[in-house]
UniProtKB/TrEMBL annotation:
Residues 296-402 form the Thiamine pyrophosphate enzyme central domain. It comes from Verticillium longisporum. GO terms for biological process: isoleucine biosynthetic process; L-valine biosynthetic process. The lineage of its organism: Eukaryota, Fungi, Dikarya, Ascomycota, Pezizomycotina. This is Pyruvate decarboxylase. Belongs to the TPP enzyme family. It comes from the Eukaryota. CDD domains: CYCLIN_ScPCL7-like, TPP_PYR_POX_like. Pfam families: Cyclin (PF08613), TPP_enzyme_M (PF00205), TPP_enzyme_N (PF02776).
Length: 735
């Protein structure tokens, strides 16, 4: 019979008729041939159970079955080769690696996998199956820059390092500018990459099997990133993989924080080892203390006696307690001004009179100040643009005052101290409140400086606002846009900024006031903002129980929309996704004929149909995510079959062919696939026991009775007078 594509708009329903003779896999006659996910395996089973025709209800929203006249067979056996080729008891270095990450507080892995990661992938499957809720979440990123930027954004908001897994030397180089941003932005990120196998003839598990293993073998892979990392090393045996992971994380979390890099060959990561654990309390990062008492006295006295005191900061706001502590210090010293020159974090609120905004190494206040306290800052000023006056007293307090990653760095400073900025600010503030310095801070001259500071602050705000006014012809610039965004967005919006040389201008008009609400690209590697913003969003959700707010960009037809208050985002986004499955009117083809057509031109195994049935059952009955109606069941089943085929089998038909057979455009099929994945929360792996249980439910008719009793899901969000399918395949009016 010649192939005829369905007209667009005619989409899916449920299979309940004989498979056409000779159409791919055999479902009758006494044997089932099953294709394994392993390219080297196939199974042939005989003597499968025969099921009475009356024991299975007609397919409904939950069941998509392949029916022979008097025999039904379920190919659950083929899934015995799926999911993981490793025995459940096997404990490899890769599995220990992920255990170490989780125990150390790493909750997410942003991965871009390759031929060096078979045991890594196997450990992922094993961990997600056996350690649910106690295993890192895997997020696939097709681009290494995005993966690193997401981990960077997550760490920048929370201070918790996350993991990035990339592919040998090429994936390491693909991280590119993102590693620079993480290093200069002091973001703790743990990077792991595989190495080309070091054995050639099968001496060890994991030996070379591909041409590319020779091409990607470089002399010292870790040196690609070593100069940007706080630590770089190689896992040489699985017996101490947890110690190696924790050593790297110690460096990453100790100030100055930053990225670390580990690599390991396939033979090492695939090696089976004895399960073990290490005492996690012994692997905390190195903590910095405060200032020496003499330093506290010297700095406090200098600030108290200054006529134009100035604080220059850059990274202090990474600790969200720092802005509040700095406000307390500014309130204690009347006339004190605060300049942010790093821009990586919100260090001082814009609603305080001491706020000078954000400038990159140049501001008039630097040239006039008589006492300058530099707090945790890389570039307080650029000498060719401006510099302190000759008699200015300068004190430098930093977690890394020598700037050991910079070949050339020095500033004029009377004293330098390696100390924690928050602790130092608290010490200085306490000292300023002592009786010894109270007389210097409560003079008429000090009061006058406070009034002058308020007046200059109001002038600064007026000047900023004047520069943002639209022109007479209605044209406006970035300043006006930023002010409108600030006005329209919630007060606690998190701003992910990558404005390069316009950063100061944007900062002037956004005027952040909340700790953690302003996160700027940490360095000069362009392209951070997309992945960084996604990482920040992920962190805000994870740290707030999934109840965060976020504004995301609308990308063509993808299921992302602008969302608002806590109770609304999921409903809005969910509605946008489910609407994609509704046709304007019920398709003219029955679900039985539709699925028979699909199976004729794109044969699929019974297990794929069972998995799709299980997907839709979860969505419609267990999770009540979407009602199944005549207007959406075709698209739901088409998308479910396509996803199940890709998730569970090696076989996958060309996208264009599947779209033609299904009666939709290629663009619409792609949209349906991704929407289905979001509805299913990307939980697409179906274990053998789940398939068997679902098959038993269908065989025994349990689903039939459940549905006849009425399932609330089937009435959710249903439009007036919309028809739904009953167990007998008839139509009833929805109330």
């Amino acid at each position: 019979m010649p192939f005829r594509p369905l007209p667009r708009g005619s989409v899916l329903r449920s299979l309940s008729r004989p498979s056409p003779a000779g159409a791919g896999r055999s479902f009758g006659g006494g044997s089932i041939k099953c294709a394994s996910t392993s390219a080297t395996r196939s199974t042939s089973r005989s003597g499968s159970r025969h099921l009475a025709p009356s024991s299975i209800p007609a397919p409904l929203q939950r069941g998509i079955l392949v029916r022979e006249d008097n025999t039904r067979r379920f190919a659950v056996e083929q899934f015995r080769n799926y999911a993981s080729t490793a025995p459940a008891a096997m404990y490899t270095a890769s599995f220990a690696f992920f255990e170490a990450l989780w125990d150390a507080g790493v909750t997410h892995c942003f991965v871009n996998l390759g031929s060096d990661h078979p045991s890594i992938i196997e450990a992922m499957v094993k961990g997600q199956r056996e350690k649910k809720g106690r295993f890192p979440r895997m997020i696939t990123c097709p681009n290494e820059m995005v993966a690193m930027s997401m981990a960077d954004g997550y760490a920048r908001l929370t201070g918790k390092p996350q993991c990035v897994i990339v592919h040998v030397d090429v994936g390491t180089q693909g991280l590119g500018a993102a590693v620079h941003n993480s290093s200069t932005g002091r973001a703790p990120v743990f990077v792991f990459a595989g190495l080309s196998p070091f054995t050639l003839e099968g001496e060890l598990r994991g030996s070379r099997t591909e041409y590319i293993h020779w091409i990607q073998d470089v002399p010292d892979q870790k040196q690609i990133l070593a100069q940007y990392c706080r630590y770089s090393g190689e896992v040489k045996t699985g017996t101490n993989v947890k110690q190696m992971v924790n050593r790297a994380l110690q460096f990453s979390k100790s100030d100055p924080q930053g990225p670390v890099y580990l690599c390991g060959a396939r033979e090492v990561m695939e090696a089976e080892i004895v399960p073990y654990s290490i005492p996690q309390e012994e692997w905390d990062p190195v903590e910095l203390g405060g200032l020496p008492s003499k330093a506290v006295d010297k700095i406090a006295e200098a600030l108290a006696g200054a006529k134009e005191p100035l604080i220059i900061t850059g990274y202090g706001g990474r600790d969200h307690k720092f802005p509040g502590a700095l406000v307390e210090l500014a309130n204690a010293v009347k006339g004190l001004r605060v300049l942010d020159t790093g821009g990586s974090d919100m260090c001082f609120p814009a609603d305080h009179p001491a706020w000078l905004g954000l400038r990159f190494g140049s501001d008039e206040a630097i040239t006039t100040a008589d006492v300058i306290l530099v707090l945790n800052c890389d570039v307080p000023w650029v000498n060719t643009l401006c510099h302190p006056r000759k008699d200015a007293r300068v004190f430098h307090v930093d977690v890394d005052p020598l700037k050991q990653q910079m070949p050339v760095f020095y500033i004029k400073a009377e004293s330098r101290y390696r100390a924690d900025s928050l602790a130092a600010v608290g010490q200085i503030t306490d000292q300023l409140k002592s009786d010894k310095l109270a007389s210097l801070l409560n003079t008429k001259e000090a009061e006058a400086r406070g009034m002058q500071l308020q007046e200059s602050y109001e002038r600064r705000l007026a000047t900023i606002q004047a520069k943002t006014k639209p022109s007479e012809d209605g044209e406006f610039g970035t300043g006006h846009l930023c002010r409108e965004l600030r006005r329209l967005c919630p007060d606690d919006t998190i701003w992910a900024i990558e404005a390069v040389t316009n950063t100061g201008f944007v900062h002037d008009n956004i005027q952040p006031v909340h700790p953690g609400s302003w996160i700027n690209c940490g360095g000069g590697g362009l392209g951070w903002s997309g992945g960084g913003a996604l990482g920040i969003k992920l962190a805000s959700d994870a740290e707030n129980g999934g109840k965060g707010k976020f504004v995301v960009q609308v990308q063509q037809h993808e299921p992302y929309i602008i969302i608002g208050e806590n109770s609304q985002p999921l409903n809005l986004q969910h509605g946008a996704i489910t609407r994609k499955f509704y046709s304007k009117k019920p398709p003219p083809i029955s679900i039985e004929d539709y699925l028979a057509r699909l199976h004729r031109f794109c044969p699929m195994s019974t297990a794929v149909y069972l998995a799709t049935s299980l997907y839709i059952h979860r969505l419609a009955v267990d999770e009540r995510a979407i009602p199944v109606t005549r207007r959406n069941c075709h698209r739901l089943v088409l998308a479910g079959l396509r996803v199940a085929m890709k998730a569970l089998e090696d076989l996958s038909y060309a996208h264009g062919k599947m779209a033609k057979v299904g009666g939709v455009s290629e663009v619409e099929l792609a949209r349906l696939e991704i929407s289905f994945c979001f509805l299913a929360n990307f939980e697409l792996v179906v274990r053998e026991d789940a398939l068997q249980k679902h098959a038993d439910v269908l065989r025994e008719g349990t689903s039939f009775h459940v549905l006849r009793q009425g399932v609330p899901t089937l009435t959710l969000n249903r439009r007036p007078k919309e028809r739904i399918l009953t167990a007998e395949g008839k139509e009833n009016e929805a109330k």
